[in-house]
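Exercise: predict the fold of this chain.
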Amino acid sequence: MFGVDKNSKENTVYETAEGMTPINIFSPSFKLMSMALLLDNSNDAIIWRGPRKMSMIQRLLTGVKWGELDYLIIDTPPGTSDEHITVMTVLKQHEHANDFLRAILVTTPQMLSINDVRREITFCQKTSFHIIGLIENMSGYVCPHCSECTNIFAQGGGNLLAEQYSIPFLGQLPIDNRLNTILDQGIQQVDNGLELIQETEAMKLFKNILDQILDHWE
């Protein structure tokens, strides 16, 4: 989505005495680290058993030269797998973990996704992981010609789930073909990519969600 060419010199991850060096995107203050950056071939499958996988997650969290950060955003797979337990365990070792650890949950309107996120909510509750709120993604489809949004899946499931568990509902994001096209090409590979995504209907809605997330810390 960011349009990172891992074969270019500036996108090479180096080992240093202080840890692996993340790559910079857009500016020196925006850093990225991914398992994909460590593979010789981006098409290679990672066929690892649990212990090795958990060890790599720990390394990505504690063995990277992050430097001073305002936010560290961790994108995790759906469900409540070993990956989530490892991330939670490693981060909670920090002295002030409860002051900064937060979860943002994302669902789609379909019942299958809502059931997955319901398990995520109970996981966070049982591990005392504070939830900022819930976002409903793929909530309708934005027509690229008239910008009208049509509900092609179920509607309102995310809001009802948030009400059921008394957590904030941050908003809905539709399927936006203009945004998807830019992300498929890679933001950095599209001329004025950052500016163009700001003009999409989905990003206009996302700004309101982002304001709510940032207000949480103020």
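Check your answer against the key: Residues 1-73 form one domain.
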